[in-house]
Amino acid sequence: MAYNPEKNLKMYYSIGEVAKMFDVNESLLRYWEKEFPIISPKKGGGNVRYYRQTDIENVRLVYHLVKEKGMTLEGAKKRLKTSREQTISTSEVVDRLKAVREELAELRRALDYLT
User: When you count CB atoms within 10 A of the terminal residue's CB, does the N or C end of the chain come out lower?
Assistant: First the structure.
C-alpha cells in the first residue's frame, strides 16, 4: 500500500488518486462506499467524488481489514462497529512496521552496493 498520511497535504483527492494510493480499482472504492457508510466522499457536478483526509483514513481502515487481514466485508463491518479504536491502532502499527521494513531493505541494498 502506497498511502502515507505525512505526504498527503491536499484538501481533496479524486477517486483515481485514492485508488492509486491503495493500489485498488476505482470500482472497488465505489463499492466500499455503498457497503461502509464511514466512506462518504463529497460529490460534485457529474457525481465526481472528492475524498477528504477523513475519507482516506476510513478507506485505509477498510483496506487493512479486508485486503491485509483477509476479513469478509461483513466481518470488517462488525469489527468497525465493535472495536474501531483498536482497529485504528492496529492499522497504524502495521503501517509503521511496513515503513521500517522498507527502510531496512533500503539500507541492505545500500550495504550490498558498497560491498
Answer: C
Cβ neighbors of 58 (< 8 A, separation 6 or more) are 36, 38, 39
Tens digits of pLDDT across the chain (115 residues): 455 555 557 899 999 999 999 999 999 999 999 999 999 999 888 888 999 999 999 999 999 999 988 999 999 999 888 876 777 777 677 778 888 988 999 988 888 888 7
Q: Which domains does the chain show, CATH number per domain? A: 5-114 (1.10.1660.10)
